[in-house]
């Protein structure tokens, strides 16, 4: 149920792909159960897309070869290489790159 910010690759009706910068958060009922998700999307920082595309390519290769856990591990390695947290890196790419 944690909120996440991410660059998301979407597929348009015409088959082309496009990137968005998304914020996704859960909505909860009175008992604390997730009942829905709320997503706000905005234009990504175009200067960061080439970096995100390279990361995405690496993650897809890892996941195809060794499964989703390998992709998650690769993402954490990439984030660590920047000496930032995931959120710091994502916000830095969106705001400053």
Automatic annotation (TrEMBL):
Identification of the protein by name: Energy taxis response protein CetC
Organism of origin: Campylobacter coli
The organism's taxonomic lineage, starting at the top: Bacteria, Pseudomonadati, Campylobacterota, Epsilonproteobacteria, Campylobacterales
The encoding gene: cetC
